[in-house]
Amino acid sequence: MKYGICNLSIVPLRAEASDASEMVTQVLYGELCKILESRKKWSRIRLANDTYEGWMDNKQFHPISEEDYNDLNNTPQQLSSDLVDFVTTKDGQLVSICIGSNVASIPFLEHSFEGKVVTEKLPKNRIIEIALLYLNAPYLWGGKTPFGIDCSGFTQMVYRLSGYQLLRDASQQATQGEALSFIEESEPGDLAFFDNTEGTITHVGIIMEDNYIIHAHGKVRIDRLDHTGIFNYDVRAHTHKLRVIKRII
User: Fold this and answer.
1) How far is the first Cα of the chain from the last one, in angstroms, to the nearest whole number?
2) Three-point CA angle 219, 12, 160, nearest 5°
3) Long-range pairs for 145-151 at CB < 8 Å and ≥24 separation?
4) d(CA 184, CA 194)
5) Where are the domains positioned within the chain?
6) What is the CATH class of 2-118?
7) Which of 168, 217, 204, 128 is nearest to 27 (CA)?
8) Entry pTM
9) What was the pLDDT predicted at 73?
10) Superfamily for 124-247?
11) Taking a C-beta distance cutoff of 8 angstroms, is the pair 190, 246 a contact?
C-alpha cells in the first residue's frame, strides 16, 4: 500500500482517471490518502478523513511513507479557520489555502503558517456561526470550499470545523445520528434530509432557529423549513421534500 498527502490548496477528486471526468469531491491542503491503484498519470485513492474514493492526478499530491501516514493521521487536526489564508514553502513561495485545510502537517511539509486554527470540538450552538461563514458560496457539485460547495460538502465542512465527523454524501450522512419524529423536536445544528420522487435522499441542510434552514442550493442560502420541506421565497414554492431530521450531536 502506498500513501500520499495533498500539498496544494484545492485538488479535484474525479470519478474516472480523466481531467474531463466528473468531480466527486475535493481534496484540501493537508488531507491524507491511501493509494489503492496507480497508473502513469492518475491514482485511485481513499481519503483518510471520510474514506471517500476517487481518482487524483499524480502531480497533485506528495507521496509519503506508511510510517509518516500513520504519524500524521494520528496527529490531532488543526484546521485553518479564516476563509482564505496561505502557507509559505521553505523557499518562500506562497500556497493559498481555504477554511478547513488541515495545517497539522506543516512541519512535515517544511511549510510555515501563521494563521488562525480550530483544534477542539465546539459547542453545538456554534455550528450555525460556522455555517454562516459559507453564506452565498456558489453551488458546485463535489465542492468543499467557499469558492464552490455542494449541499453535503457544506454540512460536512461545517461539522468538521466544529469538531465532528460526517460522511461525504447526503445519503451517507443520513445513516448517522438519531432520527427525530417532528420538526418541533429539532435544535439549531440538527440536519434535515430531503428525497426525490424515487425516495432517494439527495439533499441536506442545517436547521436554524425559528424554522429556518441554511443549505446549498444555487448558493449557500437561508430558506424556511416546514413539514413539507424547504420553501423558497424567491420562487414562491417548495423546492425540496422533507424526508427525515437527524440529530448528530
Assistant:
1) 35
2) 60
3) 145/10, 145/26, 145/28, 145/98, 145/99, 145/100, 146/83, 146/84, 146/98, 146/99, 147/10, 147/98, 149/216, 149/220, 150/216, 151/203, 151/204, 151/205, 151/215, 151/216, 151/217
4) 17
5) 2-118, 124-247
6) mainly beta
7) 168
8) 0.95
9) 96
10) endopeptidase domain like (from Nostoc punctiforme) (3.90.1720.10)
11) yes
Which three three-digit cell numbers place residue 4?
500520499
d(CA 51, CA 122): 23
The DSSP letter of residue 82 is S
Handedness of CA 18, 24, 30, 33 (dihedral sign): negative
Nearest to 86 by CA among 111, 68, 113: 113
Q: Residue 91: which region, alpha, beta or left (left: phi > 0; alpha: psi -120 to 50)?
A: alpha
Instruction: Give dist(CA 43, CA 56) in Å, integer.
Output: 5
Q: How many Å is the Cα radius of gyration of the chain?
A: 18
The amino acid that residue 22 corresponds to is E
pLDDT digit string (tens) for the chain, length 249 residues: 899 999 999 999 999 999 999 999 999 999 999 999 999 999 999 999 999 999 999 999 999 999 999 999 999 999 999 999 999 999 999 999 999 999 999 999 999 999 999 999 999 999 999 999 999 999 999 999 999 999 999 999 999 999 999 999 999 999 999 999 888 999 999 999 999 999 999 999 999 999 999 999 999 999 999 999 999 999 999 999 999 999 999
Nearest of 41, 40, 48 to residue 4 by alpha carbon: 48
Residue labelled with grid coordinates 477542539: 120
C-alpha distance from residue 226 to each of 17, 143, 245 (Å): 42, 27, 12
